[in-house]
Specification:
heterodimer; A: 619 residues; mainly alpha; 61% helix; B: alpha+beta; Immunoglobulin-like; 2 domains; 5-stranded antiparallel beta sheet; 3-stranded antiparallel beta sheet; 21% strand
Amino acid sequence: MTVADQVSSVPRTARRLQVRVVGRQRWSDADVQQRTGAGARARPWAIAVIPIALGGLLIAFGYAAGRAHAPNAEAQALYWAGQGLIWLPSIATLLSTRTDNATRIAVITAVAGAQALLTWAYSPDQFRFTDEFQHIRTLSDILRTHHLFTPNSFLPVSPAFPGLEIVTAALMQTTGLPLFTAGVIVDSVTHVLLPLFVFLGFRELTANARTSSVAALLYLTAPHLGYLEVLFIYSTPALLYYAIALRTTVRVARSRSPMWTLILPFVPMTLSHHLTTLAGLVMLIAMVVVLALAGRGRQARRLGLMTAGIAAGVIAWILILAPETFAYLAAPATAAVQSLLHPGAGAATTAVTTVGAAPRWETLTAVVAALLLLGASTLGAVITWWSHAGRVSSLVALLGLVYPAVLVGRTVIPGGPTLAARVLTYAMLFIAYPAAVALTTLWDQRRRPFRRRLAWAITGVLAVGGIVTGLPPWYERIPGVYHVAGFESGIDERAINVGHWAASWRPGARVVCGVSVCDTIGGYSRATISTAGSQIFYAGTERSLNSAIADQVLNYVETDVRWTRQVPLSGSYWTSDTANHTHPLPAAVLTRVNRDPYADLVYDDGLIRVYNTTLVWSN
Amino acid sequence: MEQLTRSLVNRRTRAELFRLIAAVLVGLGVVVALLARAPGVVVLPGGLLLILWLPGWIWTQAVVPAADAPLARVGYAVSTSVGLTMVLGVLLDALPAGLTRADWAGGEAVLLFAGFVAAGLRRPAADRASPSVRPAIRSVVANAAALTVVAALIAGAVLISISSQRRLNASQHFTALTIAPDNRHPLVTIDNHEGTGVAYRLTATIGHTVVFSVPVDVRSGQTVPVRLSVPSPRRGEGLLVVDLDRAGHRAPYRRVWLHARLGEWR
């Protein structure tokens, strides 16, 4: 059969594309179908992107309303209407059997693009999240010294994983772009490509574009994928290579790529982020087990050897450049294991804030979404197993059953919700696949509109569940209101200004400061943030105040009049604060610092004051 | 070189060869522009191409099989460029000059050339490229129109976000006063974020004696440094108080101070 014959044999809907095949090669049916989306409704793919962009615009209006201090309900309505426009049409488009491949790819990348746009729109003039300042510090060190691995007291493991900072520095130095713009470009580009490679990876596995695209969309509903993993933090570019590693692993398992190609995604991944690299190694180990169970022992042994080699390289990198990484990762892991071994020792806690609990509907949606995802992933694993989709595919679908373990950890471990959200960034890759199988099976194109609506609604709830359990938290989902010790909401112009001013301090100057100002000072200057300095604010007398300052060898002390007006969001005004503040700070605390005869007042903006306290202990 | 030439000519179609050579030439042009410190209008798109596209695209020609999906190849081109830049950064770190603009330019040029050689030598003949399709004009026009709408919506979101954030920043209305120690000439800066120009008076006193006083007009967004000229502290002790006064405010609008240390304002 000639190429023309093959093309003419595809359904009439696909021929509307007026496909013209050039060359004299012979193609399999799968080739032609894959390229043309035969059997699918061929429509201009860009039309499917319009509601997503409109959703982005509505949310930008919501953010603007928040900044203009419009009624919260108005901003919230715009926000959720926008999210609805981004997700609901996209879900229907991807679940439909009539959608062609180009539209599927356009939709999943556009949803990721919308997430990147909204992350930028949330803070469109500069980085404001705590972790971003830690990486600004590493990047600033690279730009200043022109070399890597300068120690960073703000996040000691950061310089050993400089992938994000290297690319941003390269972009800044070659284009002349400012730090914020270059960083946003790197983050956005890598995030937009992420679902593309998830889609391609699952399509390698399943040869089914519909299931793969739904799996890619479900992956984007993981709690941190919509915001945190688009920020200027080291895991953002690493995740792209995690997804590429998925595709490469599947191709290697299918003997479509040589074994050595597995090394390629692990190089930039190792240069970028420790945890993502470890997750990538876990993925390889899981695939070794899958191949062994699928009766492909020789391939499993070869992949096992390659995995061991890659692991050796990763461990060597960490041992040589960042040995503190082990301790950094071990602390939460040990706490998690301890709490699992001794369940009564601590209960799972949600983030404690002084602004009250999350709205009831959000809590309820999060629970329902978790249960729906559990049901869908379990059902999908069963369907894949019974449908004889292939041993490897079926076993990979079984990996989705890791989700119950995540839910147990979320419930049992102290700080479980935070940890579970973090783990889902990686585990969701495998949970999404069986869940997508279940949802695409549920969606019945020909009959039973109820099943279609159900599949659409379930996916919608999963998307909302991801938003309400992710960041920003509900109390600062709309920007514009200042919160003492908030994440982005605590970083206002005053905090940014004092951070830039502190850039002139001598390296290593020790400072105690409020949570938000510590972020900007830590990011913009080369100062060392005291993690025990909060004790000075509990000093009852001038003598004990000076004694505490001397003990901590503090060069600077920052105070903020707003501490006497607001309680801090997390209960703590300062880093490693030992108290849980339920009332604003007494004014006497600030007065005591202000009247210290040895402290120079060197910065005053009406609310924020910075004192040079070197004289207290240097004389 | 002979093997490379033979390989390139034999294994590549003319179009592939043209694209490869064009990519290398464009890349080298950007490198030259960077080294020559060309204006931003050249360097901005050139730098973006050099860091995010060209090296990855050329290396993708060498590594990624031709039968792979076209979109996968686009994705690989960008991700490979980003990954190669990371590796290049680690290598440049070993050089004495480190990560500078010139070193990036040189390093990327080497990457481009090495990729060109690898693409010529390694990749087998393109015996199974993806089927090439040409969509209908109607579809192209519809996509272009839809993308125009999308671009307009995104532009609207961008403009609204930037303008609302600017308004929020401007609504804070504050001025920061700072002082940096120096024996006879402490440096004071006035940083105006009031959203409007303000006429201030800066006054320095030691004890109850005014030792320095000047009017200072500060425009909105402006930072004005003022070098004070004050006497050294007597007997090694004293307190230098600097007030920023604003019309309409009875108390000092902002105040900073320095103690004398070892006979100096430091």
